[in-house]
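[recover] target loaded
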């Protein structure tokens, strides 16, 4: 691979990490506005009711969609990379057939378990009818997931970014007027209408590329069984992850009370949600690219290492700024009585440095179709996370939970790397070790600065560390990508 091809490869990763990170950032900003307006219109009780319905519907959707929205990407990506148009069209039909089956199955399950959900989710009234009315939303989510998988595998990344942007504003335009006029009675219609809008917008793009056809469905269900097997492993991993979070929150509730659970949730959100902007491109762009080359060991190594490099370089300056700005951000985003989450969130920031390195490696098991290995590694991580949080909370309180998050990600990184090294012959590049080492050192310095007693020292030293982290990332990205050159050409062209 020549220097130009290398630059183009790095540029692609950086470009779409930036695009989807920007979209995720827009989602967060609009989400904050939307949540503020909904809080004013519905109040705490109404927001709690909406949260319960959304949580239940998302859980049913994830448990009944067989993971098609994820596993279909791997299989179709391989076919797309072969360039066989006949096979591509046929497998698109396979995905749509399975999406239709999971849509019907999910809708029926939602209706059937409505009484159980009503009894176990609510302590007042009979909400069975609400879950029956929400059943179509589960079906729509399944259809949307299948069509989104098709767009991901086809690398229609700009289309996917456009859909996300449209949905941010559509959800805002649907929910606010309905909540204004109908209050809590509008919660179920809003959930259904948002799901319907998402489905319509998604299929309007995907059906334009590959029109929907009913003919020739014989045998397609059997052809999709390998896809379903991988998807089921992904679903089980998601259920186990949700179960681990439930165990953690239940333990914190019993040991420390609801206030501790609320503080833990806030700290977790500050650390994980906002750093997630950089990870948002992984499933959309990185996973299809990795799946397409999964039979070529050298190509797999190059793809993983470049994704880690870009993730570390993009995320590290943000993390150092987040770590040092938390004392200011916390009262702005929450309230002054959330002050105990600052030490917890600051130490938990290191988990995101480690996730930037472990996540690209962990995707290789899914790209290879090794569903059992993926499931086992996820089980080990979930058990480790629960054990560490319980142990460290008993020793160091809320600060211990942040320390447990970072330590669990460190062990996870070691595990996934050793497994990928032995099973798939993955070798970490020297540049990954160098960039990660530099940025982790600067992150450690930023954390050391948080203990500065003097406010002047804190902010002066903090600004120096953040500037250094940003300068390192910009310098390396400028050398490795052609985006800087393209930007300078545009600027010079405008001045001519």
């Amino acid at each position: 691979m020549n220097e130009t091809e290398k630059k183009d490869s790095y540029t692609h990763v950086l470009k779409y990490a930036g695009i989807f990170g920007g979209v995720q950032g827009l989602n967060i900003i609009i989400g904050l506005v939307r949540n503020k307006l909904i809080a004013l219109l519905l109040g705490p009780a109404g927001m709690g009711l909406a949260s319960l319905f959304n949580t239940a519907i998302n859980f049913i959707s994830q448990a009944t969609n067989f993971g098609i929205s994820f596993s279909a990407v791997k299989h179709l990506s391989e076919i797309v990379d072969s360039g066989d148009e006949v096979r591509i069209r046929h497998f698109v039909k396979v995905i749509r057939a399975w999406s239709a089956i999971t849509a019907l199955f999910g809708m029926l399950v939602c209706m059937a378990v409505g009484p159980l959900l009503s009894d176990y989710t609510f302590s007042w009234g009979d909400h069975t009818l609400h879950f029956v009315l929400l059943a179509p939303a589960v079906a729509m989510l399944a259809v949307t997931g299948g069509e989104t998988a098709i767009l991901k595998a086809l690398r229609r990344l700009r289309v996917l970014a456009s859909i996300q942007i449209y949905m941010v504003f559509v959800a805002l335009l649907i929910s606010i007027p309905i909540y204004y006029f109908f209050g809590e009675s509008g919660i179920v219609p809003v959930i259904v209408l948002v799901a319907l809008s998402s489905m319509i917008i998604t299929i309007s793009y995907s059906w334009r590329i590959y029109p929907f056809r009913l003919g020739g469905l014989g045998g397609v269900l059997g052809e999709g069984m390998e896809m379903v097997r991988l998807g089921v492993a992904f679903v089980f991993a998601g259920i186990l992850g949700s179960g681990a979070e439930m165990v953690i929150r239940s333990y914190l509730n019993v040991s420390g009370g609801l206030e501790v659970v609320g503080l833990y949730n806030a700290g977790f959100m500050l650390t994980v949600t906002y750093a997630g902007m950089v990870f948002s491109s992984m499933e959309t762009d990185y996973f299809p690219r990795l799946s397409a080359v999964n039979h070529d060991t050298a190509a797999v190594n190059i793809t993983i290492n470049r994704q880690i490099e870009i993730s570390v370089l993009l995320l590290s300056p943000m993390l150092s700024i987040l770590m040092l700005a938390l004392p200011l951000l916390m009262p702005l985003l929450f309230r002054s009585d959330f002050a105990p989450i600052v030490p917890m969130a600051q130490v938990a920031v290191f988990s995101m440095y480690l996730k930037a390195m472990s996540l690209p490696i962990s995707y290789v098991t899914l790209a290879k179709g090794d569903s059992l290995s993926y499931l086992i590694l996820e089980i080990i991580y979930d058990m480790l996370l629960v054990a560490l949080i319980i142990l460290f909370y008993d020793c160091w309180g809320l600060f211990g939970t942040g320390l447990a998050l970072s330590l669990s990600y460190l062990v996870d990184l070691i595990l996934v790397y050793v497994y990928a090294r032995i099973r798939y012959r993955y070798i970490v590049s020297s540049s990954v070790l160098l960039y990660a080492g530099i940025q982790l050192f600067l992150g450690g310095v930023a954390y050391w600065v948080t203990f500065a007693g003097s406010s002047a020292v804190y902010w002066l030293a903090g600004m120096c560390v953040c500037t250094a982290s940003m300068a390192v990332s910009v310098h390396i990205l400028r050398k490795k990508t052609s985006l800087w050159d393209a930007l300078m050409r545009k600027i010079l062209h405008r001045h001519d």
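[recover] notes: The chain has two domains: 1-209, 228-496.
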